[in-house]
């Protein structure tokens, strides 16, 4: 009896220590979860801030692009003006060339007249106009010839005057044409210098705007990269939170199992106490009956043990109906399950993939048409009342197909 009491006390101490360990683990897990959630919130705030900055940069880039387009239009307009001025310069240059050719012709005429005038001057050196007129009139043969000679003399004198007048007019025209050419050339040069200066200013502004645009685009690209990294970090944190929540579910399931064991141990202790109270005190005169009574008690105890053994062998627990499919190590990328079982090295083991929220991981489960298996794996498609039973190979998995079966969660 003392040994029984000692065993029950030891068991109680062990069971009482388990909740304390669970509470410590649960507190640590919750702290980790809270830390991850805070980190996720900070990460989300960072993403929102970066997105706002990116939007502001995007608007600034658009504004710069509009300015660049306006400058490009102004440059194009200025280039057209330069082209028009260049065309006008070409036209004026052609006119100038024509003027120059006309000046050459006038100069030739002047030169020719200078020869005639030189000859006339040489003749006048020997006699003046009066002597020539008198000699011409005296040598006339008749009155008619006299008048003809007077007309001829008048014509010669008028011709000399005309030559002098044309010479003077041509020389004057030459000077005026030269002055006009100089004025037109200077005007066009001034216009061209002004337009070239304006073009240089526009190109400088265009270069500055383009440089600013490039910097803004680089900033935009950098922000996009930072947002992408933040999104990746967010996904990582979310995955970590999911893992922590899964761990919490496992710990809660383990706590429930421990609570059930504790209740069972408590009940056993109470039964032992009741049995101790029910036993009569032992005396020397009652030694033989005690032996007989002890024998009966032992027999009764053996019957109870046999009965308990019989109950343990039967299938009892939470019953569910689930949709069951099958898989093998040939269908998976990894040969190791969630709980660390290597299904490639142990293809014939009885193992099922479950949703831990419905069937606790690590529990023993009886599956209709399959047998008793370990809930040792999870899957992306295994959600809710679904399971995936492990088969030795892909052919066996295909042969299983999809079934609705009854299961019993044994522990």
UniProtKB/TrEMBL annotation:
Residues 274-314 have a biased composition (Low complexity). It comes from the Bacteria. SUPFAM superfamilies: Barwin-like endoglucanases. It holds the Pfam family 3D. Residues 1-26 form the signal peptide. Residues 105-176 form the Peptidoglycan hydrolase PcsB coiled-coil domain. Residues 266-315 are annotated as: Disordered. Keywords: Coiled coil, Signal. Residues 23-109 form a coiled coil. Residues 352-410 form the 3D domain. Gene3D superfamilies: 6.10.250.3150. This is 3D (Asp-Asp-Asp) domain-containing protein/septal ring factor EnvC (AmiA/AmiB activator). It comes from Metabacillus niabensis. The lineage of its organism: Bacteria, Bacillati, Bacillota, Bacilli, Bacillales.
């Amino acid at each position: 009896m003392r040994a029984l009491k000692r065993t029950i006390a030891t068991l109680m101490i062990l069971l009482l220590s388990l909740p304390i360990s669970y509470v410590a683990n649960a507190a640590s897990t919750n702290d980790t979860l809270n830390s991850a959630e805070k980190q996720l919130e900070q990460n989300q705030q960072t993403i929102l801030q970066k997105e706002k900055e990116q939007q502001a940069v995007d608007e600034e880039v658009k504004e710069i692009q509009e300015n660049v387009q306006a400058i490009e239009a102004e440059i194009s307009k200025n280039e057209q003006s330069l082209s028009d001025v260049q065309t006008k310069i070409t036209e004026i240059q052609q006119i100038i060339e024509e003027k120059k050719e006309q000046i050459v012709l006038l100069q030739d005429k002047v030169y020719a007249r200078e020869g005639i005038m030189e000859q006339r001057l040489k003749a006048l050196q020997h006699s003046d106009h009066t002597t020539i007129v008198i000699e011409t009139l005296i040598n006339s043969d008749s009155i008619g010839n006299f008048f003809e000679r007077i007309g001829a003399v008048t014509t010669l004198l008028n011709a000399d005057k005309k030559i002098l007048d044309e010479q003077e007019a041509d020389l004057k025209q030459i000077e005026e044409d030269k002055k006009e050419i100089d004025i037109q050339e200077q005007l066009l040069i001034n216009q061209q210098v002004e337009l070239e200066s304006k073009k240089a200013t526009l190109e400088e502004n265009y270069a500055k705007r383009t440089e600013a645009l490039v910097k803004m685009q680089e900033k935009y690209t950098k922000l996009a990269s930072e947002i992408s990294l933040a999104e990746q970090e967010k996904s990582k944190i979310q995955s970590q939170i999911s893992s922590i929540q899964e761990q919490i579910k496992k710990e809660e399931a383990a706590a429930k199992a421990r609570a059930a064991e504790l209740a069972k141990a408590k009940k056993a202790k109470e039964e032992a106490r009741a049995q101790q109270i029910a036993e009569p005190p032992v005396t020397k005169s009652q030694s033989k009956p005690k032996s007989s009574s002890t024998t009966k008690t032992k027999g009764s105890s053996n019957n109870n043990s046999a009965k308990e053994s019989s109950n343990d062998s039967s299938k009892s627990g939470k019953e569910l109906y689930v949709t069951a499919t099958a898989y093998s190590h040939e269908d998976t990328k990894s040969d190791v399950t969630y709980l660390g079982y290597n299904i490639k090295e142990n293809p014939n083991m009885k193992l099922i993939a479950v949703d831990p929220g419905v069937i606790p991981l690590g529990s023993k489960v009886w599956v209709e048409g399959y047998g008793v298996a370990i809930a040792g794996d999870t899957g992306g498609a295994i959600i809710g009342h679904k399971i995936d039973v492990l088969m030795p190979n892909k052919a066996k998995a295909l042969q299983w197909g999809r079934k609705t079966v009854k299961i019993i969660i044994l522990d």
